[in-house]
Amino acid sequence: MRRKLEEHPTVRQHLAKQPPSGTSRETALDSAWLRKLCLEAGADDVGFVAVDRPELDGQRHEIRELLPDAGLLISFVCRMNREPVRAAARSVANAEFYHVHDRITHVGHEIIARLEAMGIRAVNPPMGFPMEVARDGKQWVISHKPIAVAAGLGQMGIHRIVIHPKFGNFILLGTIVTNARISEESRPIDYNPCLECKLCVAACPVGAIEPDGHFNFSACYTHNYREFSGGFTNWIETIADSKNAKAYRAKVEDGETASMWQSLSFGANYKAAYCMAVCPAGEDVIGAFWNNRKQFLEDIVKPLQNKKETIYVVPGSDAEQHVVRRFPHKQVKRVSNGLRSKSVRSFLKMLPLFFQRHQAKDLNATYHFTFTGQEEAKATVVIKQQTITVTEGHTGQADFELTADSGTWIRVLGKTEHPFSAMLLRKIRTKGPLKLLTAFRKCFPS
After folding, report:
1. Residue 154 pLDDT > 60
2. Which of 14, 37, 293, 360 has its CA 20 to 30 A from that of 408?
3. pTM for this one?
4. Between the CA atoms of 49, 50, 55 and 61, what dihedral angle is there, to the nearest 10 degrees?
5. Rounded to an integer, what distance in angstroms lies between the CA atom of residue 398 and that of residue 409?
């Protein structure tokens, strides 16, 4: 069989080819040469990180699931035009986001084509969407931000966006995973371009960024990503729960329906991203802010603050209180963000992201969770001084204990099974003051 295959024209052509010199996996690529290749392909800046770097410890397994013999990550940025991103008309900003999103995909494709022609394996995961949405827990294929930081392309600002030293936060990130090696790796820059001016704090309509650096993931996700997966799920369920068209229109304004149609047709719209719009950091960006801060506020920050718009919040959340207090001219729309844990593991992992610290103002308690059945687990949740920690196993003295069948617990979280019936059937058992359970639930409104 092998002899017969060797006589096939394709195999004969393959055997006749000599491998390109200096391109085997054992030979390190010249970093200057690779940088030039990436810039010629359309990247505005690029850096290189070996997969065994400590900064990638948290996602090395996922990277090697993507490419088993991964050795080198190429991190690159494409610059966005600033003024469209700053526009109060968010359709203008979203058009810029998606144009550069497509450019990121194109640049990654071009780089991979050139590497592949040299016999180097390479993969470019999506910049953001599409995601592995059917997967439990983390749905994005790769975490671009820590890779970009490790590659020297910037540092994270208090708004959780990578700020490039020259372009500021007006960039989108791309990553290419290869099985190559490099002659010289990139290293993180030795300062943070973030000015800690707190303009992102002032502009965020849901208070997701607080002056001390605390970030409320749930608030940001519920509003800014309203037309993405979670909000879309909530919208579909609103349609399903509506008796007729009149009942639907009582729940959803015509403008909201039109906006969902637009997102389905042209790409999901970000509702805010004001933190990015107002950020003055970066060598190319700082001038207007530094030369005339008052004018910068008038031209860029206040139009976003003063904009009359619908703000989407989870009922009883910190975001709802923030909008009512800080932006009374904006309309509050109480919704579910559509996020539901599919497993006990994801429930425990997501607790810090859903935590509403201002709802925990007077709470100081230790909770022991024990899950049985199909998914067994033990965990300790400590809520103290408006902070939360989640650890495996039972540690410390519990003020409240909850034991639950894992499947029942997930159904209760998804609101397909009532907690009281589960308690009557002993599928959920508690020990300790029930007021602590009520206080716990208040910290995670849904």
Report:
1. yes
2. 360
3. 0.91
4. 130
5. 20
> So what's the pLDDT on residue 138?
76
Contact 230, 337 (CB under 8 A): yes
Q: Tell me whether the omega of the peptide bond preceding residue 130 falls within 30 degrees of 0, making it cis.
A: yes
Q: Which residues pair with 172 in a beta bridge?
A: 78
Task: Report residue 58 as tokens.
Answer: 């948290």
Residues 362-379 as b or e (16 or more Cβ within 10 Å = b): ebebbbbbebbeeeebeb
Query: How far is CA 48 from its chain centroid?
Result: 22
Distance (Å, whole) CA 220 – CA 352 = 14
Residue 61 structure tokens? 């397994």
Backbone angles phi, psi at 256, to 5 degrees: -70, -40
pLDDT by residue (tens digit) across 251-295? 999 999 999 999 999 989 999 999 999 999 999 999 999 999 999
Going by pLDDT thresholds of 50, 70 and 90, the confidence category of residue 15 is confident
Token readout for 417 is: 């099974």
Interval 232-257 mean pLDDT: 95
Q: How far is CA 380 from CA 142, 226, 254, 348, in A?
A: 29, 32, 45, 10
DSSP state of 215: B
The answer, yes or no, to whether residue 19 has pLDDT greater than 70, is: no
C-alpha torsion angle, residues 153, 155, 157, 158 (rounded to 10): 150
pLDDT digits (tens, 9 = 90+) for 155-193: 999 999 999 999 999 999 999 999 999 999 999 999 999
Strand boundaries in 5-114, DSSP class E: 45-50, 72-79
195: exposed, middle or buried (C-beta count within 10 Å: 0-12, 13-18, 19+)?
Answer: middle
Q: Which two tokens stand for residue 117?
A: 């022609």
**pLDDT score, position 182:** 96
Backbone CA torsion sign across 201, 207, 210, 216: negative
As a whole number of angstroms, the distance between CA 343 and CA 375 comes to 8
What tokens were used for 282?
């970066």
Q: Go through the domains of the chain in sequence order and give each one's CATH number.
A: 22-178 (no CATH), 199-334 (no CATH), 344-442 (3.30.1050.10)
Distance between CA atoms of residues 279 and 295, nearest Å: 14
Q: Which amino acid is at 58?
A: G
The pLDDT of residue 1 is above 70: no
